[in-house]
């Protein structure tokens, strides 16, 4: 049976999206442009904010690995709130893919 344990995320953001890649890599998307990831099965977590997305809520996340992920924000497209960001370097930099 699964054993649930609280994890320290390093942020006060509210989380709305999660994607696990195997047993060690997990990406999480949340409020205020925040993302969190682990590459060691939850022993440590790295939190960050996507530059330029500080007012967005990430509602979807998809990851290929600990380095590659997509984050999707939801909101009025006519106000620029519907966006898709991509990282290929573990969240150190992000590219706006769609708005």
Strand content: 35-45%
Largest sheet: 4 strands, antiparallel
SSE-based structural type: mainly beta
Mean pLDDT: 94
Describe this entry's structure for a reader.
This protein has no helices and eight strands. It has a four-stranded antiparallel beta sheet with strand order 1-2-3-4, with no helix packed on it. 26% of the residues are buried. A hairpin with a 3-residue loop joins strand 1 (15-21) and strand 2. Helices cover 0% and strands 41% of the residues. The radius of gyration is 13 Å and the shape is globular. The mean pLDDT is 94. It starts with 14 loop residues before the first strand and ends with a strand. With 99 residues, the chain is mainly β.
Descriptive tags:
four-stranded antiparallel beta sheet, 99 residues, 8 strands, mainly beta
Summarize the structure.
The protein is mainly beta and 99 residues long. It is built from no helices and eight strands. Strand 5 and strand 6 form a beta hairpin.
Question: Would you spell out the secondary-structure blueprint of this structure?
Answer:
Blueprint: E1 15-21, E2 25-30, E3 34-38, E4 46-49, E5 58-63, E6 69-73, E7 84-87, E8 95-98
Antiparallel strand pairs: 1-2, 2-3, 3-4, 5-6, 6-7, 7-8
């Amino acid at each position: 049976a699964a054993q649930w344990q609280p994890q320290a995320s390093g942020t006060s953001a509210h989380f709305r999206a999660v994607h696990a890649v195997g047993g060690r890599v997990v990406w999480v998307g949340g409020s205020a442009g925040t993302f969190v990831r682990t590459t060691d099965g939850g022993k440590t977590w790295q939190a960050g904010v996507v530059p330029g997305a500080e007012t967005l809520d990430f509602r979807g996340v998809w990851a290929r690995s600990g380095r590659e992920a997509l984050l999707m924000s939801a909101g009025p497209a006519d106000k620029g709130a519907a966006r898709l960001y991509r990282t290929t370097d573990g969240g150190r930099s992000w590219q706006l893919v769609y708005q």
